[in-house]
Amino acid sequence: MSESHLSTATAHVHGHGEEDYLSCSSGWKSWAFTLDHKRIGVMYLVAILASFLAGGIMALLIRLELLLPGKFFLSEDQYNHMFTLHGAIMTFLFLIPSIPAALGNFMVPVMLGVKDVAFPRMNLASFYLWIGGAIFFLAAVILGGLDTGWTFYTPYSTTTNTSVITASLGVFILGFSSIFTGLNFLVTINMMRPAGMTWFRMPLFLWSLYATSIIQILATPVIGITGLLLIAERALGIGIFDPARGGDPVLFQHFFWFYSHPAVYIMILPAMGIISEMVSTFSRKPIFGYRFIAYSSIAIALLGFLVWGHHMFVSGQSPLAAMMFSALTFSVSIPSAIKVFNWLSTMYKGSVSLETPMCYTLSFIFLFGIGGLTGLFLGALATDVHLHDTYFVVAHFHYVMMGGTLIAFLGGLHYWWPKMFGKMYNENLARIACLIIFVGFNATFFPQFILGSRGMPRRYAKYDPEFQIFHQFSTFGALLLGAGLFLSAGVLLHSLLRGRRAPANPWGGSTLEWKCSSPPPHHNFDWPPVVTEPYHYDHIQYDPKEGGYVEVEEVAPDPDDAPLPVKH
Amino acid sequence: MSDSSSVVAEPSATSHHHSDDHPRFLAHHFGSPQQQFDAGKFGMWLFLITEVLFFSGLFCAYAVYRSTHPEAFANADRYLDSTLGATNTAVLIFSSLTMAWAVRAAQLGQKTLLIRLLTITLMCASIFLGVKAVEYSHKWDLGILWASQFNPKDHAAHSPALLVLSIPAILATMITGVAFAVSRAKKSPIAAPFWFCLLLTSVAFFGGVGLGTMVPVIEESFTGVKHGGDHEESHSEQGGDRSHGHDEHANVAQGTDAHAGHSHAAESQVSEPQASIGNGPSHLLGQAEFDPTYTGIFFSIYYVMTGLHAIHILAGMGTIAWLVWRSIRGDFGPDYFGPVDYVGLYWHLVDLIWIYLFPLLYLIG
Ligand code: HEM
Ligand SMILES: [Cu+2]
């Protein structure tokens, strides 16, 4: 990475005439040792998509096995391994790093208007730690698999003969990777905002990542120590979690959920941030209730630390604690609801255009709505005693994690794809893929609400014939969902080869990333960018010559801002 | 926050000259040395927060088991030698002083002083580990291990545990010694003093081992109280004296070893049966059998906490050694001393954790 990269940028977008980050250097070393946050983001993107593929194939195998009430092609044991690995891969390798480490890494400095994150080396280290964690997961699969469920509950995890130690080490290492990303974002956002980029001019995606990073910093060390104690329990027999030695397995659950409940907000907050960006851009209307959305991210991050006990209503916690956790659980849905109301109000009387990212946005609001609302049934103590550990829970968390995080991730990917790779994809096919995913998703998971409320427990390889119709429906839905995902992957990959060159601002976005060329130049900005209020669209108009949007009128410059660069 | 410190210049100024007006140590993506320093410091504080939360899991486990099984904790404490713990506390607090002073020296550009202070800090860390090795090996000999291996014996077995624990230090001494000799022969201006510092550090470990062996002996000669695995006797002796309330010896012991008297008070409340058993080695066994399960868990927590703390000491030593190298190279001065500052913060936190561990593990009862 040449640090003395000079340029004579005078064009209307940053980096016009400068080499972009993809072509500024080549050879595998220029990627493997890169300190450029954009390249690290792209490498992360490839890595997490690969794990998504692996986890997804396992999901399809699980669903296929459930086509029949008895045994189809997996033994009970294999089935246990399959859902454990599916869950562990999806959570630790895909969902948690997905938006922050891939899209966030790419976008945070660009949207903030700086050259890089605060600690580029730590950023690269984070990526290699991820790789290390993934290798440990792989080793766990090879050395006997894992059948504890992604939750590693003791005492089963202290007695099973599968490779718990290897997998826990993997989680430990991935935790560090996640901490490094979060720490980098916090420092970058706190310390490096350029002049004019006040807290309340930050795009909401940055607010959401800021909140996410707080959780990553505060919660992840706890899963780290929990993993180490679990390893020590198995390797040495320290007796802290093992009831056979006088230990307390419920303590493990407390430790685990103290991390893992906040971790679900690590997954959803960045998703909400992406939605806030897209909903405003595609409604061409300033976001409604900017401050409410910003503060609600922080509120979710902090309240999320107080509700972990709702996973343990039937684990033997005191009735008082259960009641408190139940009440607190409701409080955390308030800031989530605030966001949903603000998105809807943003669309109200906006000129909504249904480009692919907006289709994902609508899909998200619908699915997250269902997922969040069913969370309330689970958070209510009385109903959860019935619903706990049934397919209702499975459906709930898939609606929030897949319907929420994954859909927002896909939306964000389609939104920023032209920026990241400089190519436009086929809009119609991408929209069709989005529709198939939406239909397939609901077909897969809606029946599971019914299954769960009728008493079908989760994590079972076999079931009563009365449930078969719902399971089959769900399995066919999963196949449809898989087809939709493959279609959208095909559309995106095709664009890399055949896609039309992307303009700097294909959607009419108003945040800073649309002010540099697509793909962005190596150093993002050659001079500190002019920062104005985000989410103002009046001066951004479609220009048929560009095939994208351009700024048409001078914004009254802030007194302490540099003058706007000249327009063509 | 950073608004005022970031460089906002005319486009041409930054785009054409930005690499000229940057000092060598300033990374390209920072606007000013101040911004770089602040970012590093904030990052370090965040990292320390993660460290605190990392240990907090252990403190939670400690709190849970102490509240559910207080008697086991009271019982377990008597196996720990608080004098050695206190010695180590003093060593670490002193190292915090030298570390803080080293930051000051870096800021003032006092190169030689900086190198010396960092080396003393390293040596203190080494001494700490030496004392810890004595403690660990003594427990090993007495069978006082974590839950699954917790099997207290009456008399310390003679095992090479201390030697085994010293192997890394022996190797380090040999390697640094050779490296020093070679680099001195080559008259290498940076490597020679660097390896000398590390040689001193490695040797200091044996100073720690010596200290750990001598302190109990000296204490014994002063107070007549025998410490270590079989110091239970002395506790109950003091206890007996104390309950009669008129023996000077007990008061002396209390004065020098605050926890001795203290631990007894709790012990006589919770462990009734033992009061009637009386003194002697059989009493020790009685204690162990009183609740070996949870005493074992106490020692699990003890080993995990002190072990992780020791790992943090080692990590700190690694980074301080890196600072020594850079100081000899002359990297630090009034303009640039961030790394010394950050590592200093880390070192203080590691010391602070010990300052919590010491009373929670050694001074209860
Ligand atoms: C919006 C408000 C939410 C509420 C009130 C809520 C409530 C709950 C409750 C009470 C449970 C425990 C159910 C049981 O095991 O009996 C649960 C499980 C779960 N939730 Fe949520 N949730 C919410 C949002 C989310 C979000 C946003 C995510 C992830 C992005 C999420 C992911 C999960 C997961 C993964 C589980 C199951 C963990 C397991 O047992 O394997 N939830 N939720
Ligand atoms: Cu939860």
Task: Lay out the secondary structure.
The complex is a heterodimer of chains A (568) and B (365).
Chain A: H1 28-32, H2 37-65, H3 76-112, H4 120-142, H5 156-159, H6 164-191, H7 204-235, H8 249-283, H9 290-303, H10 319-347, H11 356-379, H12 381-387, H13 391-421, E1 423-424, H14 427-453, H15 468-498, E2 500-501, E3 540-543, E4 548-551
Helix pairs in contact in A: 2-3, 2-4, 2-15, 3-4, 3-6, 3-7, 3-8, 3-13, 4-6, 6-7, 7-8, 7-9, 8-9, 8-10, 8-11, 8-13, 9-10, 10-11, 11-13, 11-14, 13-14, 14-15
Chain B: H1 11-17, H2 33-68, H3 70-77, H4 82-108, H5 111-142, H6 161-185, H7 191-223, H8 232-244, H9 248-256, H10 258-270, H11 272-277, H12 281-290, H13 292-329, H14 338-362
Can you put this structure into words, describing what you see?
- The complex is a heterodimer of chains A (568) and B (365).
- With 568 residues, chain A is mainly α.
- In chain A, 63% of the residues lie in helices and 2% in strands.
- Chain A is built from 15 helices and 4 strands.
- A two-stranded antiparallel ribbon of chain A has the order 1-2.
- In chain A, a hairpin with a 4-residue loop joins strand 3 and strand 4.
- In chain A, helix 14 packs antiparallel against helix 15.
- The radius of gyration of chain A is 24 Å and the shape is globular.
- Residues 1-11 of chain A have low confidence and may be disordered.
- Chain B has 365 residues and is mostly helical.
- Chain B has helices spanning 11-17, 33-68, 70-77, 82-108, 111-142, 161-185, 191-223, 232-244, 248-256, 258-270, 272-277, 281-290, 292-329, 338-362.
- In chain B, helix 3 packs antiparallel against helix 10, helix 5 crosses helix 7 (191-223) and helix 7 (191-223) runs antiparallel to helix 13.
- The longest helix of chain B is centred in the last third of the chain and has 38 residues, at 292-329.
- Chain B is globular.
- Chain B starts with 10 loop residues before the first helix and ends with a helix.
- Mean pLDDT of chain B is 80; it is low at 1-20 and 228-289.
- Classes of the chains: A mainly alpha (568), B mainly alpha (365).
- The interface between A and B is large, with 58 and 53 residues.
- The structure holds protoporphyrin IX containing FE (HEM) and copper (II) ion (CU).
